[in-house]
Amino acid sequence: MRRTGIALAMLLLAVVDGRPEGRSDHRTIERHYTPADRAAARYQYVPFDVPAGTGSLRIAYSYDGADGNNVIDLGLFEPGSLELGTRAFRGYSGGSKSEVVISAAGTTPGYRAGALPAGTWHVMLGLYKVTDTGVDVTLTVETAPGPPPPAPAASTSPRGIPGTPPLRSGQAGPQWYKGALHTHTLHSDGAATPGDLVRRVRDAGFDFVFITDHNNTTHRAELQAQLPAADHPLWLVGEEVTTPGGHASVWGLDPGEWVDFRVRPEDRRMRELIDAAHRQGALFSINHPVSDCAGCSWEHDVDGIDAIEIWNGSHTSPESGSLLWDRLLTAGTRVTGVGASDWHRDPSRIDVANVRVYAPSLAPGAILDAIKAGRVIVARDGAVHTPDVVVRSGSQSARIGDTLAVSGPVRIELTATDLAGGEAVVISRGERAGHTRIGADGRAAIEGQFAGYVRVELFDADGAVAAATNPVFLSQR
To answer: Which residue ranges form the domains of the chain, and what is each CATH number?
Structure first.
């Protein structure tokens, strides 16, 4: 992520009877970091004190970017532990904002609003890039007194699950649902508000969307307050866990929760982050495992992951994204392959790529369970029709995500009405194991001896990949 260099306007300080209460305390802190500092500790913590009765806190920082060779990320912790998974985390903006303001009444996107407890706070500086000569960072800290925060309002949600709209008419039953799994808003380095993002997803014909801002989930409070209970896609809380050794999406986090990101590949604690997600019933998916973005390719262990992006509209081609996936599948690890646009702003398309998920209903638990079970097809864009695939052996049949007991040859039958004249390719154990042309009626069949699993990649008449299914797993009878 890159700093924009554009400072946000400072929020109004807390007032009493229309006049500022007291005077702001203003402090400037200077720090110098070298490549050796970055190697020793990727995240540096700068302490400062917040007095009792503080109503507003403003943090600003600046440094010489050296033509992109210095990149310093920003985060904030209130008094408390700095250990992994701490409850003291107040937010993160990476390099997207040079100024942050927090109060009980409101906050800069990416940070939690609320009371400002007295004590020692810490600015977190993530040393993403540091030149050989080092970098000087200037921090400005301003505090101002104010009234105590109002009591939290009682929940008025009639739906039981915050952020979950009612099911749309005609979409309550089992079917393929179109979803966006990886999107960004102004709460990290995106360009849209959460409400604007959901409207864009609706206009693109999606049934559900996960908002996955970098290292925070603060979009939820804004979206819940702004989004009317109307005909709009199901939206669910996610997070892009942005570590120094790769990024991952977490889908289905509880309200107010987050998953830590401060783990380097050599730290060997990635499983702790995955377990933290699983304790909330959330799924953990590797993003763009192969990328030319610094720090974006996956360098951690893969033990415990639920899914992997095989197609990312911003980073990963279907070919490179499938290599790690097929290695895991061949080794017997059942991991769901997914695709996403990783949308941040125009002119990027929000539907390239996307998923089709076969679920019993358009509800959070149903969607998450279906993704975990591998009932997923990755589609190039929103215009691609969801193909139908059945795998047969003898009198037995199975669909995507199922296990098929095999006796003799395996026959794969598919229908892809918009891909007539294209090609269907069977992948088994990471190898191209069969292929055929898709007929003028959009139908095709491939028969052969396969083992382990079969999945299908579909190409249009011009030879461009259009869709990729998850496997049907094969067991010998």
So the answer is: 15-145 (2.60.120.380), 175-379 (3.20.20.140), 388-476 (2.60.40.10)
Pick the closest to residue 63 from 123, 144, 118 (CA basis).
123
The pLDDT value recorded for residue 470 is 98
Q: What was the pLDDT predicted at 153? A: 52
pTM (2 decimals)?
Answer: 0.90
**398 token code pair:** 């199975």
The CA distance from 416 to 436, in Å, is: 13
Return the DSSP state at 146: -
Q: Which of 339, 332, 335, 299 is nearest to 316 (CA)?
A: 339
Tokens of 138: 């200037």
Q: Which residue is associated with the tokens 């799924």? A: 283
Q: Which residues have CB under 8 Å from 458's CB, separation 6+?
A: 387, 414, 416, 419, 422, 423, 424, 425, 438, 465, 466, 467, 468, 469
3-state secondary structure 282-307: CEEEECCCCCCCCCCCCCCCCCCCCE
| Cα–Cα dist 219/141, whole Å | 25
Q: Is the omega angle on the peptide bond into residue 347 within 30 degrees of 0, that is, cis?
A: yes
Number of Cβ within 10 Å of residue 17's Cβ equals 5
Q: Which residues of the chain have pLDDT under 70?
A: 1-23, 148-172, 227-231, 316-320
pLDDT for the residue 163: 42
Q: What pLDDT score was predicted for residue 164?
A: 45
Task: Say what the pLDDT of residue 293 is.
Answer: 86
The number of CA neighbours under 13 Å toward the Cβ of 86 is 15
Q: What pLDDT is stored for residue 316 in this prediction?
A: 63
Return d(Cα 445, Cα 437) in angstroms, integer. 9
- Matching residue, tokens 């990949």: 465
